Structure formats: C-alpha cells, structure tokens
From TrEMBL:
Keywords: ATP-binding, Cytoplasm, Kinase, Magnesium, Metal-binding, Nucleotide-binding, Transferase. Catalyzes the formation of acetyl phosphate from acetate and ATP. Can also catalyze the reverse reaction. ATP binds at K14, H208, I209, G210, N211, G212, D283, M284, R285, G331, V332, G333, E334, N335. InterPro entries: Ac/propionate_kinase, Aliphatic_acid_kin_short-chain, Aliphatic_acid_kinase_CS, ATPase_NBD. Pathway: Metabolic intermediate biosynthesis; acetyl-CoA biosynthesis; acetyl-CoA from acetate: step 1/2. It is found in: Cytoplasm. Mg(2+) binds at N7, E385. PROSITE patterns: ACETATE_KINASE_1, ACETATE_KINASE_2. It is an enzyme of class 2 (transferase). Substrate binds at R91. The keyword Coiled coil does not apply. GO terms for cellular component: cytoplasm. This is Acetate kinase. It comes from Saccharibacillus brassicae.
Amino acid sequence: MKVLVINSGSSSLKYQLYDMTDESVLAKGLVERIGMDSSILTHKPADKEEVVEVSEILEHNTAIRKVIDKLTDKTHGVLASVDEINAVGHRVVHGGEFFNESALVDKEAKKNIRALIDLAPLHNPAAVMGIEASEVNMPGVPQVVVFDTAFHQTMPERSYLYAIPRVLYSKYKVRRYGFHGTSHYYVSLAAAEFLGKPIEDIKIITAHIGNGGSLTAIQGGVSVDTSMGMTPLEGLMMGTRSGDLDPAIVPYVMNKEELTVGEMNSMLNKHSGLLAISGISSDMRDITDGWEKGEPNAKLAFEMYEYRLRKYIGSYAAAMNGVDVLVFTAGVGENSAIVRKAVCDNLSYLGIEIDEELNKIRSGDARRISTPNSKVEVLVVPTNEELVIARDTYRIVEESQA
Ligand SMILES: Nc1ncnc2c1ncn2[C@@H]1O[C@H](COP(=O)(O)OP(=O)(O)O)[C@@H](O)[C@H]1O
Ligand SMILES: CC(=O)OP(=O)(O)O
Ligand SMILES: [Mg+2]
C-alpha cells in the first residue's frame, strides 16, 4: 500500500510518500513559509536529486496541488500516475472531544473537524483544505485523520481542568487538550529506545519547538501534562503566538481598542510572539541573525523565548518530581544550537550539562548532547509525525477493507 502523508502546519506543509510494505519513503518534501514572501518547495525523491523551487504560495491548497505535480512529474516524480496512491493520511491538530483516536474521513468527520476551527484557527482550516484538495485530486482514495490531541487524553483532571466554574467544562468542554501529541509520542519512544531504557521507567520532558511550540511531561510512558491548552495558544512564546498571559488582558485590550473577538484572537495568534517582540520575523533564524547584527529587539525576543521555555522545563521537573531525559525536537529544537545552549546553560541547578561540541553537530539522527556527568540525558530527536500518521493510516484502511 502506498500512503501519502500530509502534515499541514501553520506555516508549512510537509509530505511523505510511503511504501508500507517496508515503510520506505519514496519521496518527501516540504513547502515552507506559506503565506510569507518567497515560499520554498523542496522535493526529494528517494533515488533522485532534490529540487528546490521558490515561488509565492499563499495557501495550503495551492501547496498540495504543487506537491502532487512534483510526485507525478516526468523528471522529479516517483509515480507514473496519481492513481498509485492508495491512501492519504492527514495530520489534524484539534480533535476536541469528537475524536479520541485516528479515524477514516467521511462527511461526519469533516463536519466535526470544521466545527473545531474556532478552537484551532491557525490549523484546522489547513487540514480541511488538505482533505478537500486530496479529494479533488485523488477521488475515491480513502483518507485518514490523525489528531495532535489524542496522545494527551491520558492527562489527569488536575492537569487538564482549568480553575474556572465546572459548568464551563460540562457545557462547552472547556479544558486543556494539548497538541503536537503525535510528535511528543514519537520522540519520547525514540528517546527511550536510544537510551535502551523502558519508557515506563523514565521521566521525560519533550520540547517540541517549531513555529508552534509545546512541552510535555511524560511519566510512565504517558502524557501527564502539556503546555498547550484548549487551543494551541497557551504555554510557550511562539513564532506568532503569545503563549501564557494574564487572561484579564483580553477584555481590557478589547475594551480599550474596541476589538472584536475575531480581532483579539488574531492579535494573539498571528501578531504576537517572536514576531511582535522583535518587529522582524516569526522565524528563529531571522531572530538570531537580527541579534548578531545588533538589533536590540531581536535580542529581547530571543531572551523572552528562552526564559519562558526554561521556566516551563523547571515547572515540569517539579510536576514529575524530577526529570531523567530532556528531548529537543521540531524546527527550532532540532536546528537551533543557540536556543538549546541558552536553555541548558540556565538549567544547571537540575544537574543539566551539555557538551558544546556535541550540541553544534548537525545531523538527522537522534543524538545525545549532554556530557557524561549530566544528571539529565539531553537529546535531540528529529520528530517523525509522518511515520506515525502513515502507520495509523495503513492500519485503519486495512481494517476498513477487511
Ligand atoms: N536552522 C534553523 N535555526 C533556527 N531555527 C530554525 C532553523 N530551521 C528551522 N527553524 C525554525 O523552525 C520553525 C519551523 O519549525 P516547524 O517544526 O517546521 O514548524 P511548523 O510545523 O509549526 O510550521 C521556523 O519558523 C524556524 O523558526
Ligand atoms: C499545534 C501547533 O501549534 O502546530 P504547529 O507547530 O505545526 O504550528
Ligand atoms: Mg509542526
């Protein structure tokens, strides 16, 4: 079975085409900086040269059309025709209380994913566009949706409830759901495997820091707390998202600036975070470049980002009464040695010590960056949300056809 996995992030679209007979990747790629000037499409067929194309890609449905063109392209393609794709698996950020596990796409599923757009305004619209563009381009091909929220369903009430009237939970399901679950799940298992320890025996903090970012405390192999909440806005400072703030700011600013709910949501989701503080960009690469060039607001943005991340790591060590393993993953976590060093240098009280040379190594493999003396194993583990999605898609489609 050939499975095309589509991971629509807020500013990127990643894809991988799997042959599930041996889980080999026939081609993969990504479209970066969607909606920004000069989007970059990188397509890498397994046995051919990588191609990079720069163009303006304003939204996810254009991105998917371009991906399908590349997969079936005479020169760079790996498929004679789009008909060779047997199933499509989509990453969907918010499953709310509609979905506790991955599901086949049907009318009802699409309706429910749409109904959750309110709660994930940066993400669920991208997923819906991805599903619909796939239906148009691959009619009749079964599609599966895999949710970011599923892994965090194990959180105890004390973690997932907010200290607000209980009726808001029973009436509106206002609670913490958590996100990036597929990634936290994958990297925590990969970390345990790398260390050769049973996952049940270690306390792990996974830092998934990309354009969006979240931290998860994993104990006994399950998520016991995570930094994102009812929506992917809570928690860490992110590319364009504020992360935690005093909730009283929301009515105060709405009142002063005469903002609508939509405008306020948009301010906190799309015009805050690194972008707002630096005044330069939401991209960590631009922030560190700006800092090197002596731009004071880039330096401040970096410091706030690192400070908040470090405080969360400390709080999760407290939540689990200790931490054995700290894992960095996603765009910033896998690539930014500067962020990792700044955070870890400030966690020496936990016995964390990293090796600066190991930290600088660039590699696509899971690796240790802590010293032998470090009391906590610090790892960089490239995430692979796509593989988890491909496996779920394969299993669910097989089951549905049995
Ligand atoms: N070499 C790098 N150095 C620092 N940050 C990087 C680097 N490469 C990517 N990033 C960061 O990773 C982010 C994208 O991460 P990713 O996990 O792909 O995000 P998302 O899935 O939310 O779109 C970019 O916004 C950028 O800040
Ligand atoms: C949930 C979320 O924030 O996703 P991303 O990191 O892809 O923006
Ligand atoms: Mg992501």
